[in-house]
Amino acid sequence: MLLTTAMKIPASSPAGQAARSAAWYQTADGAPRGFIHTHALEEVWFHTGTACNLACPFCLEGSKPGDDRLQRVRLADVQPFIDEALTLGVKQFSFTGGEPFINKDIVPILDYALQSRPCLVLTNATRPLIQRIRQLKPLSQHPHPLHLRVSLDHFEAARHDHGRGKGMFAQALAGMRELHHAGFSLSIASQAIPGCSQAEVSQGFGEVLQAAGLPADLPRIEFPEFHPPAAQVASPQISAQCMTDYHSESSRRQFMCAFSRMVVKTAGRMRVYACTLVDDDPDYALADTLIDSLPVPVSMKHHRCYSCFRLGASCSELQRADQDMSATGAGDT
Ligand code: SF4
């Protein structure tokens, strides 16, 4: 069955009836919770695991060396979901971590996925990536492109290295140069920089990229503070009425959970989550398969949902062409 945007998502699934917390359905003051209804499956994300070579204190995944909150996926874990997604009309496969290039199966996984669709990988572009450049080069010969989004928190090396470790800024630029020379397209993910205008930030990054021998005008995605996993954040509650008072049908279709899913591995089991931002809350584990996950209405219960609601935060680059890049968020590695 090929699912297109014109085809209806199945009305219900057994997974949709799974027990969830009361907060999934009601706000703290008892109002009906806002929900997003998925209209298509355009993008499927895979979480490659929360292990990372770095240990940034602000990481929204809490990733660090040896971390296994989310386990490393293997090619055999991912293949059935790629195959299923293709029957559902997916347009792109995307990969986040942790640091995806720590995962020893990442190149075979990309090799498999790129035979069918374009792929996006989020990376810190440091040693794990640099060590795999030779393995990555043949992937540029696939009919579908591989695009990499590199985390550069700030255009000043010292500010980037403050969170990521000394020398990581220079290493990331070296990794980006290798990728650029190998023919892969790039974008960068930065953090919101208080007190700097967008023009100043763009100019700062442009000068740094140019000095590093890279195109000065690489697309840049700026992301807000997402807080570490399981953080207790007092964000405003999003009711059903908020979803119609402040959003239209068209803007609700831009939420990531309206057109994508993320697949993660925990306790040896692959599960389909609503999006890239909610894998720390089991309520958002929607189903074991993509098709069963699609009819489940997605609650606006998570504090990160407010970033989507208020700022249009999104890890996706699929619907970015018409949007202001500076108003959106991104996953991190
Ligand atoms: S964080 Fe955003 S995309 Fe994810 S479930 Fe909440 S509103 Fe949807």
Automatic annotation (TrEMBL):
User: Which Gene Ontology terms cover its molecular function?
Assistant: catalytic activity; iron-sulfur cluster binding; metal ion binding
**Keyword Nucleotide-binding among record annotations:** no
Which metal ions or organic cofactors does this protein require, according to UniProt? [4Fe-4S] cluster
Which UniProt keyword terms apply here? Iron, Iron-sulfur, Metal-binding, S-adenosyl-L-methionine
Give start and end of each Radical SAM core domain. Answer: 36-265
Q: Extract the InterPro entries matched here.
A: Aldolase_TIM (IPR013785), Radical_SAM_PqqE_MftC-like (IPR050377), rSAM (IPR007197), rSAM_sf (IPR058240)
Show the Pfam families listed in the entry. Radical_SAM
Source domain of life:
Bacteria
Can the keyword Chaperone be found in this entry's annotation? no
Q: What is this protein called?
A: Radical SAM superfamily protein
